[in-house]
């Protein structure tokens, strides 16, 4: 077991993915749903007051009656609010527990259990949203896949609205390791366990890997969560290759004017109109 621990706890290779079923793990998905639904906790979702702010801004940006696809919708916090504004909304998420909750509590919207990297629509939506910096949690190859699929799924002139973390969030961070003991269980596991955590930085401090290794009496689990941070220039260089036009830039997904000094950055991309 010690050799297995050594193999799991070493620094990961760039873009290495863990194989543990994070989104649909029975215990973790329950903890995630509770975090989504806590109105004052900025964890799985933003605080609900911030979500209200985002939906208010989106409803000014997106024409009335539009068909919207909400990627990574979780339990439908944005999806339900947008439906209540009169939009035709589809929410898509890779957590069975979150989708089940959303379907139970929102009958206006359509909900789909699916990995959004397997999106397969053609010119079906007027707007697509991906909010709370999910874009940067994808590896480079996954981001390329997503952009191609989003472009295809949008109608001509359609909008892709998403946010990312900026380099400001990484300025003071360094590689680090820590450990904690959870005798009564915790977020990662219901059993008593030790949690080994590490952060590693790559690509000129623009890519962070957060590694978590869980040790119980009889099991070892490893989870890797990646995050890439961007400037306006680096994000534009990446996304405009796919044919999008940069419609507008904001500090956040509430539509705050762009200053270049915020922790987040929000792009509104437009698919080219037909000639």
UniProtKB/TrEMBL annotation:
Name this protein carries in UniProt: Class I SAM-dependent methyltransferase
Domain Methyltransferase, residue spans: 68-158
Keywords: Methyltransferase, S-adenosyl-L-methionine, Transferase
InterPro entries documented for this protein: Methyltransf_25 (IPR041698), SAM-dependent_MTases_sf (IPR029063)
Domain of life of the source: Bacteria
GO biological process: methylation
GO molecular function, one term: 3-demethylubiquinol 3-O-methyltransferase activity
Keyword Cell membrane among record annotations: no
Record has S-adenosyl-L-methionine as a keyword: yes
EC number: 2.1.1.222, 2.1.1.64
């Amino acid at each position: 077991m010690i050799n297995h621990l050594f193999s799991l706890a070493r620094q990961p290779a760039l873009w290495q993915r863990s194989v543990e079923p994070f989104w649909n793990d029975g215990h973790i998905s329950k903890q995630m749903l509770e975090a989504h639904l806590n109105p004052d906790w900025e964890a799985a979702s933003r605080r609900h007051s911030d979500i209200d702010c985002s939906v208010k801004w989106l409803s000014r940006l997106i024409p009335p009656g539009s068909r919207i696809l909400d990627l990574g919708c979780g339990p439908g916090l944005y999806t339900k609010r947008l439906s209540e504004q009169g939009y035709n909304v589809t929410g898509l998420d890779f957590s069975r527990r979150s989708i089940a909750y959303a379907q139970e509590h929102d009958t206006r919207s359509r909900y789909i259990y699916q990995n959004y990297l397997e999106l397969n629509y053609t010119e079906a939506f007027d707007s697509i949203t991906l909010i709370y910096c999910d874009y940067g949690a994808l590896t480079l190859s996954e981001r390329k896949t997503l952009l191609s699929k989003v472009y295809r799924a949008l109608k001509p002139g359609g909008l892709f609205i998403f946010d990312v973390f900026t380099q400001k969030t990484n300025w003071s961070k360094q590689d680090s390791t820590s450990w904690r003991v959870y005798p009564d269980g915790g977020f990662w596991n219901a059993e008593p366990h030790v949690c080994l955590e590490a952060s590693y930085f790559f690509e000129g401090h623009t890519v962070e890997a957060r590694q978590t290794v869980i040790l119980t009496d009889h099991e070892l689990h490893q989870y890797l969560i990646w995050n890439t941070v961007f400037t306006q220039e680096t994000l534009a260089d990446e996304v405009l290759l796919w044919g999008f036009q940069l419609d507008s830039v904001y500090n956040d997904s509430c539509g705050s004017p762009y200053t270049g000094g915020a922790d987040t950055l929000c792009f509104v991309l437009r698919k080219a109109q037909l000639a």
